[in-house]
Amino acid sequence: MEVIKAPRGTRDVLGDESWKWAHVLDVCRKTADDFGYSEVLLPIFEHTELFSRGIGDTTDVVEKEMYTFIDRGDRSITLRPELTASMVRSYLEHEMRRMPQPVKLWSAGPMFRYERPQKGRYRQFWQIDFEILGVSNPMSDLETIDTSMEIYRRLGLTNLQVLTNSVGCPKCRPVYREALKSFISSSPGGLGGLCETCQGRFDRNPLRILDCKIPRCKELTESAPSMIDSLCDECREHFDSVTRGLSRIDADVRIDNRLVRGLDYYTKTAYEILAGELGSQNAVCGGGRYDNLSEAIGGPHVPGVGFASGIERIVLTLEGQGVYIGKKPEIDVYIVTASVDAAIEASALAHELRSVGLAVDLDYARRAMKAQMKHASSIGASFVCIIGGDEMASGAIGVKNMKSGEQMSVPRSETAARIASWGEEMVK
Ligand code: ATP
Ligand code: MG
C-alpha cells in the first residue's frame, strides 16, 4: 500500500520554518495592538452565499477556486478563500455599528483556493487580514497601507513597492467601463484579439481584462484609457487625499492604472504591495476599499477598507532578502543519564531547571550515553548535564559547556545557578 501524502497544494510547515511564522504573527499582533486593531477569530467555513455575494460570482475566486461542499444538513458550505466578507458578516452579526466608529479588526489563519500550485501559490495558505469598518474617510485607507508597511518594516523587509489606483464608484465606473469597451472594440485586433477568458469578461466584468496576465491581452490594453480620467469629483478628491498622504509615508509608491477590482462593491482605493524576490507571484499584499460590500451581503451601508497579506509570501520574501530575524529557539540544557534511577533524577532536575526559565530536554529512549551526547550536540544544546553512576553516588551533577568543551562537577543544588551564570558569561 502506498503511504498517503498531503494533498496537492498543501504543505507541512516544519519546525525549521514554523518558528518564523510565529515571529511574523507576533509582529502582526504587536502592530495591531499599537494601531488599535482588535483580533477576531473567525470560522474557517461559511455559507457559500457569503462569498458568492461578498466576493462576486464573476471573480476567479468564486468561479474557479472555491472549496465548496454540501454538509450533512444539506447546506452549501465553503472553506473560506479570504477574510474580508467574513469580517463584514461578523461586524453586522454582532451589531458593531453600535460601537464607536470606526471598528478596527484583524485576523489571521488558513485560506483555501483551488489554484495551480507553484512557488508562493498554494491551495491552503495563510493570510493576515486588517480591516477598518464604518468610515469612508480617505485617511483610513492610508492607515491600512501604513499598517501593512509598518508590519513589513518591523519584520525588516525592504525594497517593497506600493501600487495604487482608484476603481471609482458605481456612479463613475460605468462611464469608464464603456470607454474601455469601446477602446477594445475599436483596437486593431478588436475583441477577438483577447484571450478566451477575457472575451467572456468583456460584457460581464470588462475591468478584469486589465488584470489578465496573458501577454497578448496585456499588449492590447497597454494604451487603454485610464480609470483616473473618468473619476467623479468625489472619487477624485478621495484619490488625491490618499496619494497626498502616501507621499508622506516612507514608501516607494506608484500609481498603477491597471490595478483593478472589477466589482461594484469595490470602490475608490485599490492597492497592492510587491516584493521583487517573489518572482511571478510578486504580490505580498492586496487591499482596498469596499463601501458597498455590506449591502451586497444583505446589510446596511457600511463603508470599509483593508488588506490581506500572505504569510508564505512574507516568509519567502524574508528569506529572499536574507533578513536576520533571530534563530530557531534552541535547547539550553540536555540531560544525559546512565540508568533508570538516573533518569528519574533527571526528570526532577529538568523540572527544576525549566522552572527557572531554561529550555530543557532529556533522553527517553534509554540510549547509550555516547548516543545521548551526540543527540545533545545535534540539537544545539548549550549545556549537557550528566547523571552517571558516580554522580548518583556523590549527589553531584556533571555539567558540560558544549561551546567551550569545559566540564565540571557541580553540587546538585547549585546546578541551575551555575548554568545560568555560565550562560550569562557566554552572552557577554
Ligand atoms: P494573486 O494575484 O497573486 O493571485 P490575489 O489578488 O488573488 O493574488 P488577494 O485575494 O488580494 O490575492 O490576497 C491577498 C494576498 O494573499 C496576496 O497578495 C498574496 O500575498 C496572498 N495569496 C493569495 N492567494 C494565495 C495563494 N494561493 N497562495 C499563497 N498566498 C496567496
Ligand atoms: Mg489570485
Kindly list the characteristics that best describe this protein.
single chain, about 425 residues, alpha+beta, BirA Bifunctional Protein, domain 2, Rossmann fold, 2 domains, 8-stranded mixed beta sheet, 5-stranded mixed beta sheet, about 40% helix, binds adenosine-5'-triphosphate, binds magnesium ion
Structure write-up:
The chain has 428 residues and is α+β, with helices and mostly antiparallel strands. The protein folds into two domains: 15-172 and 231-320, BirA Bifunctional Protein, domain 2 (2-Layer Sandwich), CATH 3.30.930.10; 333-421, Rossmann fold, CATH 3.40.50. The chain has helices at residues 15-35, 48-56, 60-65, 84-93, 138-155, 173-186, 196-204, 215-220, 233-246, 293-296, 311-320, 340-355, 369-378, 389-394, 415-427; strands spanning 38-39, 45-47, 67-70, 76-79, 103-112, 124-133, 160-166, 252-255, 267-275, 283-289, 304-310, 333-337, 360-362, 383-387, 396-401, 407-411. The protein is elongated, with a radius of gyration of 28 Å. Bound molecules: adenosine-5'-triphosphate and magnesium ion. The site of adenosine-5'-triphosphate has 18 residues, from strand 6, strand 10, strand 11 and helix 11. Adenosine-5'-triphosphate is lined by residues 82, 113, 115, 120-122, 125, 127, 281, 283-286, 308-310, 312-313.
